[in-house]
Amino acid sequence: AQSVTQLGSHVSVSEGALVLLRCNYSSSVPPYLFWYVQYPNQGLQLLLKYTTGATLVKGINGFEAEFKKSETSFHLTKPSAHMSDAAEYFCAVSGHAGGYQKVTFGTGTKLQVIP
Amino acid sequence: DTGVSQNPRHKITKRGQNVTFRCDPISEHNRLYWYRQTLGQGPEFLTYFQNEAQLEKSRLLSDRFSAERPKGSFSTLEIQRTEQGDSAMYLCASSFPETGEDTEAFFGQGTRLTVV
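^ inputs. structure came back:
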């Protein structure tokens, strides 16, 4: 069994401020972890993923996330928010090589960027 | 190739009517997934195909739902006798697992269904 908890359904930051979106997971096997972004009425776009190896993962648009096994966390960060970052972000977990039918998505965090 | 394409983008239908959605995956991708996303939730898995074979169906996929992928290319998702609870965004994704590991799927823009 696996699950994802995203803390905070809505997060507001000022333009230029640090973005921190929190994700905690549970998994009975070593996890694969993902962050996706979804703009209104659009599909999901992969920001970054952790499979194995380096625990600090860099993704597109300046985002990065760190896999912390001891804390069962995979928080998403970006040093400086842009207006274009306003969107909904989904954390997801999958067991190793489970295939996307095994991916469990969180309920999402809507990011608002204030000018 | 412009990515995963879904049609229509929006569909409004009356309760009890049948609807069909189409998904065209990225051309070399052999896996195709269907998800449903309701307001305030993340996507939930419905079913997936490897080439033309439907390998798994979620318990969310009631008997009113059927999916096909003839010839392993495009896929259709049909909902019969629609209910208001079927109102959701239906997302399609495709992937091409390398060495047996499926670690990146590409999503289409979705079909938003409204049942009135």
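The first strand of chain A starts at residue 2 and ends at 7. Chain A has a mean pLDDT of 92.
thumbs up if we can close this ticket
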